[in-house]
């Protein structure tokens, strides 16, 4: 039994050698957060989902199942709007693009930072690695807007390999020889939206095995029986990509709910009557007077003639969402930023992702590992970004599915390259 017909669940279904498979999806369509909206000639995702493949064979597996020539390969152009000027991302490697006095402050604080400072959380890591100037101009305000929490609540390594570290040698070298490459320096994106990657997995599956609108309600771990809103099913293995804390509740496992905190993200997709800023794919907004933390430009990915944006607003889980008020605020802020001038909004769509970014803490990692082992003893496996309560890329979920199948079926799927020494 597979719970969730997003990337993680469909990858498991694709790669397992078992024939008796049932996929539960509580929504009326597959895709999870990788769903796509097509409206008034615009193509929007539930958020900006761009694939950064490290394993060519996984990419080939998916693309071969998609319409010919439907995938664009893009060299990323990411900027930061800071004090009404666009500077290159990441901020810490491009402080030389700041006004001179601020550049000197950032460089001075970077050089004389307390290298021996004790680091117990994400906030302390930022100050220890980058000093006060860089941290307080970009890293702290941006990440507070994104996570919607105090950064001292997060683990020092909450973002893992995705955090763009840079030492002082790299910062100074970048002033003369710019090199802003990162894990996502290039990305791929289908002309039909991120749902095309989902459909690539769907193609290999028997549609009768996918139960839409069916929700997992409870699990009897000892008897290995799952109860849904429609029936009871006995399972040998259950693989879930549902949020980890939700799975614990479904399985009747007592746990400290405070440990598994997260934010939610309100996403606006906005379509305008004509082109906007050229060239850039997404822009970060660290300053607090802007409501959103990031804006992405679909039109510069598709090469289309009308500005098409996604706007992301980080919120606390319990915050009330007033769509009309938020949309009005967003449009005002876009005008202040100069993204929108005399443009006319001709189409829009909104969705709330909840959870969006999980709060990775030392305790959440400890308890996730503990309960994951306990669940596995009963044939229940929790995977994916939310199932593993972690920060990861979409491809990482596919790799995790492949690794799980190797463990469950004793069968290795040859799509992941061996690690280089």
Shape: globular
Which CATH class of the largest domain is shown? Answer: Alpha Beta
Low-confidence residue ranges: none
- At the fold tier of CATH, the topology name of the largest domain is FAD/NAD(P)-binding domain
Query: Structural class of the helices, strands and pairings?
Result: alpha/beta
Strand and helix map with partners:
Layout (H helix, E strand, L loop, with lengths): L1 E2 L3 H9 L7 E3 L10 E4 L2 E4 L10 H8 L7 E5 L2 E5 L2 E4 L11 H12 L10 H26 L20 H9 L9 E5 L4 H8 L7 E3 L3 E5 L4 E4 L3 E3 L3 E3 L3 H7 L12 E10 L9 E3 L9 E4 H5 L5 E9 L6 H15 L7 E9 L8 H15 L3 E3 L1 H4 L6 H16 L12
Parallel strand pairs: 1-2, 1-13, 2-9, 6-15, 13-19
Antiparallel strand pairs: 3-4, 5-8, 6-7, 10-11, 11-12, 14-17, 14-18, 15-16, 16-17
Helix pairs in contact: 1-6, 1-12, 3-4
In short:
By secondary structure, this protein is of the alpha/beta class. It has helices at residues 7-15, 56-63, 100-111, 122-147, 168-176, 195-202, 244-250, 298-302, 323-337, 362-376, 384-387, 394-409, and strands at 2-3, 23-25, 36-39, 42-45, 71-75, 78-82, 85-88, 186-190, 210-212, 216-220, 225-228, 232-234, 238-240, 263-272, 282-284, 294-297, 308-316, 345-353, 380-382. Strands 7-6-15-16-17-14-18 form a seven-stranded mixed sheet.
What this model shows, in words?
The protein has about 425 residues and is of the alpha/beta class. It folds into three domains: about 1-35 and about 50-70 and about 190-255 and about 360-410, 3-Layer(bba) Sandwich (FAD/NAD(P)-binding domain); about 90-175, protoporphyrinogen ix oxidase, domain 3, CATH 1.10.3110; about 265-355, Protoporphyrinogen oxidase, mitochondrial, domain 2 (Polyamine Oxidase, Chain A, domain 2, Alpha-Beta Complex), CATH 3.90.660.20. It has twelve helices and 19 strands. It has helices at about 5-15, 55-65, 100-110, 120-145, 170-175, 195-200, 245-250, 300, 325-335, 360-375, 385, 395-410; strands at about 1-5, 25, 35-40, 40-45, 70-75, 80, 85-90, 185-190, 210, 215-220, 225-230, 230-235, 240, 265-270, 280-285, 295, 310-315, 345-355, 380. Helix 1 packs parallel to helix 12 (about 395-410). The longest helix has 26 residues, at about 120-145.
């Amino acid at each position: 039994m597979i719970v969730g017909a997003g990337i993680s669940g469909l990858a498991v279904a694709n790669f397992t050698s078992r024939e008796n498979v049932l996929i539960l999806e509580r929504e009326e369509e597959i895709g999870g957060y990788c769903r796509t909206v097509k409206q008034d000639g615009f193509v929007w995702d539930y958020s900006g989902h761009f694939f950064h493949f490290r394993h060519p064979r996984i990419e080939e597996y998916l693309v071969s199942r998609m319409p010919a020539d439907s995938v664009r390969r893009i060299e990323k152009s990411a900027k930061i709007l800071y004090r009404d000027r666009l500077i290159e991302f990441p901020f810490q490697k491009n402080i030389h693009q700041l006004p001179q006095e601020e550049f000197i402050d950032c460089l001075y604080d970077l050089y004389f930072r307390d290298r021996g400072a004790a680091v117990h959380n994400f906030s302390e890591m930022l100050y220890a690695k980058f000093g006060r100037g860089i941290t307080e101009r970009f890293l702290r305000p941006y990440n507070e807007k994104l996570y919607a929490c105090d950064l001292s609540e997060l683990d020092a390594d909450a973002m893992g390999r995705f955090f763009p570290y840079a030492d002082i040698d790299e910062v100074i070298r970048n002033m003369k020889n710019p090199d802003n490459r990162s894990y996502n320096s290039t990305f791929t994106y289908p002309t039909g939206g991120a749902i095309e990657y989902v459909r690539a997995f769907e193609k290999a599956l028997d549609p009768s095995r996918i139960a839409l609108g069916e929700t997992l309600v409870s699990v009897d771990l000892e008897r290995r029986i799952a109860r849904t809103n429609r029936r009871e099913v006995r399972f040998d293995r259950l693989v879930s990509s549902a949020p980890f804390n939700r799975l614990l509740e479904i399985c009747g496992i007592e746990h400290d709910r405070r440990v598994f905190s997260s934010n939610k993200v309100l996403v606006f997709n906005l379509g305008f009557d004509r082109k906007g800023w050229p060239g850039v794919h997404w822009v970060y907004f660290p300053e607090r007077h802007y409501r959103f933390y990031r804006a992405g430009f679909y039109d510069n990915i598709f090469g289309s003639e009308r500005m098409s944006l996604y706007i992301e607003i980080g919120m606390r889980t319990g915050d009330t969402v007033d769509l009309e008020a938020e949309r009005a605020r967003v449009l005002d802020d876009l005008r202040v930023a100069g993204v929108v001038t005399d443009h006319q909004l001709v189409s829009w769509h909104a969705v709330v992702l909840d959870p969006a970014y999980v709060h990775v803490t030392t305790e959440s990692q400890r308890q996730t590992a503990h309960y994951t082992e306990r669940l596995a003893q009963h044939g229940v496996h929790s995977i994916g970004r939310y199932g593993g309560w972690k920060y990861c890329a979409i491809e990482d979920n596919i790799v995790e599915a492949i690794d799980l199948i190797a463990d469950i079926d004793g069968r290795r799927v040859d799509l992941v390259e061996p690690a280089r020494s």
